[in-house]
Amino acid sequence: MMGAKSRVITAIGWASWLLAGAAVGLAQEATSTSALAEEGLPASLAGFSDSGNFDLYLNEESIGRIECTWRPDGSLQTVSTLSLGGQSITRKLELTPDEEGRWRTINMDALLGKLTLERDGTVARRSMAGEDEIVTLKMKPGTILWENMTPILVSHAVLNYNQETGGTQTFPLFIVPKVVMEASLERLDTVTRAIAGRDVRFARYKYALPGVDVTVWMDGHNRVCLVDVPAQHAAYVREGYESLRQAEIVDATLSQPTHEVRVLDEVLLPMRDGVKLATDIYLPDAEGRFPLILARTPYKKEMSELQARYYARRGYAFAVQDCRGRFASEGTWEPFVNEAQDGYDTIEWLAGQEWCDGKVGMLGASYVGWVQWWAASLNPPHLVTIIPNVAPPDPFYNIPYEYGTFFLWGAIWWADVLESEATADISGAAIGRISDKEYGKLLKHLPVIELDEKVLGKQNPYWRKWIAHPTNDEYWSPANLSERLGNVDIPVFHQSGWFDGDGIGSKLNYLKMESYGHKYQKLTLGPWGHTDTAHRRVGDRDFGEAAIVDLQRDYLRWFDHWLKDVDNGIATEPLVSLFVMGANEWIKGNVYPLPQTRFEKWYLHSGGSANTSTGNGMLSPAQPADGEATDQYTYDPSDPTPSPYYYDEPEAPEDDIQSTEALRQARKEYHAKVTAERPDILVYTSEPLKEPVTIVGPVSAVLYASSTRPDTDWFVRLDEVDEDGNVFQLVEGRLRARFRESMKEPSLMKPGQVYEFKLDLWQTGIRIPAGRRVRVEVASASFPMFSRNLNTGGHNETETEYVTAEQTIYHTAEYPSHVLLPVIPMGE
Fold first, then answer.
1. How many CB atoms within 10 Å of residue 106?
2. Helix (H) or strand (E) holding 505
3. Catalytic annotation, residues
4. Within 13 A of 33's CA, how many CA atoms are on the CB side?
C-alpha cells in the first residue's frame, strides 16, 4: 500500500481498502466501430451516446449511486456518491474530447484533491494540488478508457470489439488517472430476461483484467445494464435492471438472505473494570433467539456494517464493537494488552441477552482476527467457534517483533494508520497521505525510538512501550496466546495466504492447536496476501480461476454448521486446503503438513565466494564435503543491506504514465541490481531442475554462522528463478542472533564462535517446473522493512552507536547449512 514515491514489492499487506481493487473494467455488446487509432493515441469515444443511473452493490447493499452521461461527441460526465458507515463522499469526473472524439481533458476528484489531465498527442500536463508536471502517455494505439466509478465506459470496450471475429480479443486499457494495462473481452452468449413485464435480450461478455474476470450484460442498444464482479460479491446495476442480480439458489442447506435487518441503539457494554465499550448490534427482524457472531475492531465499528447486515439477513445476530480506547469506546487504547479480558467479558454479556441463543462465534481479519485468539485463550463458556482470518501469532513472532528483529516499516505504518484513524475515512485520502510518505528516507533516522516523532509528528506511547520491551518479557505476557490454548478445544477456521504479511500466524496458531489434539481445525491457504477474500494475481503472476474460491460462502457454511447445527457436510470434508502455485490447483488433506510431505534438506555450497548473484554459490540436495570453503561478508549498519523487494521510485523532473508491465519490469531490474551489486548478500542457486519439484508447507532453514560481534541479524529468503533470470520470492525468515535459544532470555555470542541458527521461513505452496532454479539468499539486514542491528549487543532501537560485523557462513560436513523444503512427491 505504498504510494507514488515508494512502493513495497513484497507480499506484506495490511488491510486493503474497500473497492480499492474492486472497481474494475467491464464490458458489453455493440456493433464494432473504428479500428485502432494512430500509434499511441486513445480510441475515440465519439459516435455513441448513453445516460443512466447505476447502483454499486456489495453483497445485498447498495453503497454507491452513480449518474453517467455520454454524448455523441465523446464528452462524458459522472457524478458518484459512495455511502458507508455513516459517511458519504461525492466525486465528479468530466471528460472533454478533441475533434476526433479522443479524450483531450480529464477533470476528476482524486484521493488527494482535484486532478486535471490535459492531453496533447502522447504527452499530457497533469495538475494536482497546485503542482503541474508534464507526463508521457505510454499508451498503445487504440487504448480503451476505464474509470472505477464510471461503469458506462464498459461500452468503450464493446464498441471496439470485432463481432465478426468473436472469441477473446485483447486490448490496451487506460484506467484513469495513471494505470495502463492489458485487458480482454470475450462474447459469451445471448439470454432473455423479463424486465418490467417485457422480455429483453442481453448479450453477455467476459471482461478480463489482470486478476479479475467480470461478467457484463448489454442490451440491444449497446448499453451496459449489469457489471457483475462475482469474485468480490460486487456489481454495478443500471436503474430498473435490479432483477438481473437475482441469483439461483444452488445450495439449499446454506442460510439464505430472507430477513430484514433491525439495528439496536448503540450499546455501551460494561467490562469488569467499569470501562464501557461501544457496540452495534444487528438482528434479523423476526421473533426468536439467534446465534451470535462477534467482531471486535480498532478500525471503527461502523465500517463493518456490510458484513453485519450480510449475516443478520441470514438469521444471525451480529455485534461489532470498538476496542477499548478506539472511536466510541471508553478507556485508553493500547494494542494487545486488554483484548483477552475485554473479549471474554463481551462474549459472556452478549450470550446472556434475550435475543441470543447462547451460541457465539467470532469473525474478522488481521487485528480483528487476533482479538479472537486472545478471547479464546481465556476459554469463555459460550464461545463455540472462531474464524481468525489472516491473524498474527504471539506479538514477538510477527509484529512488532519477529523472532527478535523489529518489524520497523510494518510497526510504524500500522501506528500511523491507527493514530490517523485512516480506516474510518471512506474517501481513502487518509491512507493515501500515509502511503505517500517517503519511508525509505524517514526510517534511516537513529535512534529508532524517535521515529514516531519523524513519521507521526508526535511521541506515541505504545510505540515507545514496544521498544522499551525488546525481549518477550512480562509486558507481552497478556498478549502471548499460544501457551494458553491447551483447554481451548473449539473448532477453528484458519485462513490466510502464501503472501500474507501475517501468514506466520496461520502456521503457528494452527500447529499449536494441532499439538493439543483439538479437533476440527480447518485451514485454507491460497495464493493471496493479507486479505480474507480470494484473489488470483500477485505481481505479474496470475494463478488462474481456480485461485478464486468463495471464501465468504465457506465462512457462512462453517457458522451454519457450528452455530445452527446444519448438516451441510463441511465437518466431514477435508479440513486442509492448500493452493499449489504453478500447478494452479488445490490439494487437500486433514492435517498440515500433508501426510505425504517429505522434508528435504537442500544445502548451501560455494567455492568461497557466494557474494552477489554473480558469485559461485550453489544450492543442492547433496551434502557438503569436509573442508568446503566458507563464505564471508561485511555487514555495515551505516549502509544496511536493502530489502530487494522494497523499491523507491527515483525522483525525476518528468513522470510517465506507463504500463503496469513497465513498472513491474523496473522492480525486477531493481531486485536484480541489488542482488548483483551488494556483496553483503550471499546467493546460492541450484542447477536447472531436471524434473518439477512441488513444495507445499512449512519452510525453515538452519545456518551455521559466526560473527565478529556479540549480536547481529540473519535473514534468509527462498526464491524461484525462471529461465530468464527473473526472481519470484516465495518466503523470507529472520532471527536476531541473541534470541537463538530463547525469546525471553537473550544470549550474546562470543565473537568468532560458530553457532547454529534455526530460522522459521514461514510457508509456501508452489510447483517449480523443470528448467527453473531454486535460490536461497542470506544477509544480515532487510532495510527498511526491518530495523537494522547495530552489532553492539546493546539496544538496537534506542542507541545510535554501531560497528561493522564480519560474518561467516559455514557449509561443511560438520556445519551443513541448509533449507528444509516440504516436498510433495509428484502424483501423490
1. 22
2. helix 503-515
3. 366, 500, 530
4. 19
Strand-pair category, 576-580 with 521-526:
parallel
Q: Which residue has the cell 472511536?
A: 327
C-alpha closest to that of 699 among 631, 770, 602: 602
What is the C-alpha to C-alpha distance for residues 472 and 469, in angstroms, rounded to an integer? 7
CB 428 within 8 A of CB 149: no
User: In which residue are the cell numbers 465519439 written?
Assistant: 46
Q: What CA–CA distance (Å, rounded) separates 649 from 110?
A: 21
What is the CB-side half-sphere exposure of residue 812 using CA atoms within 13 A?
14
Listed in sequence order, the residues at least 6 apart from 811 whose beta carbon sits closer than 8 Å to its beta carbon are 603, 604, 605, 606, 624, 628, 630, 631, 704, 817, 818
Q: Is the pTM of this model over 0.90?
A: yes
- Cα 88 to its chain centre, rounded Å, is 26
Average pLDDT, the chain: 91
- Least Cα distance to 1 among 183, 66, 733, 13 occurs for 13
β partners of residue 526: 497
Whether the Cβ atoms of residue 212 and residue 24 lie closer than 8 Å to each other:
yes
Neighbours of 596 (CB within 10 A): 13
Cβ-contact 644, 721 below 8 angstroms: no
Rounded Cα distance, 684 and 724, in Å: 17
CA pair distance 157, 214, nearest whole angstrom = 13
The whole-number pLDDT of residue 23 equals 30
Instruction: Please state the rounded mean pLDDT for residues 440-462.
Output: 96
- 699: enclosing H helix or E strand: strand 693-707
Instruction: Convert the pLDDT of each residue in 286-308 to its tens digit.
Output: 999 999 999 999 999 999 999 99
Distance CA 480, CA 501 (A): 19
Instruction: Report which secondary-structure segment, H or E, holds 822.
Output: strand 818-823
Write the single-letter amino acid at 44.
S
Tell me which residue of 71, 80, 26, 21 sits closest to 50, measured CA to CA.
71
Distances (CA, A) of 205 to 25, 55, 156, 329, 755: 12, 20, 13, 48, 61
Give, for 134, the enclosing helix (H) or strand (E).
strand 131-137
